[in-house]
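Our preliminary data section would be incomplete without showing what the modeling component actually yields. Below, a chain of 93 amino acids is followed by its predicted structure, encoded as tokens that our downstream tools consume directly.
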Amino acid sequence: MDTYLQPSYQEKALGLLKKDAEKIGQLIKVQMDNLTMPQCPLYEEVLDTQMFGLSREIDFAVKLGLLERSDGKEILASLEKELSILHEIHTEK
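Predicted structure:
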């Protein structure tokens, strides 16, 4: 019975992690839309905390066997790409 439930737990874990990543993505998009300085200490602290928290969630899911490490890296890489775009937009202005 556990093998039947395992995929649903994996799907649920991936879904929850993606939702958390989307929340961080929204934070990044708000920053892009407002074109506020990405070097703002408060923004950096919040973003760093959120990214660290997500990376710990991903590590935990990987250790439980609910997520492939490559999927976790993909989620983080996507957010890092958004951050890179934010910094490029800000430096061009």
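Helices lie at 2-34, 41-63, 69-92. The chain is about 85% helix and 0% strand. Preliminary results of this kind motivate Aim 1 of the renewal.
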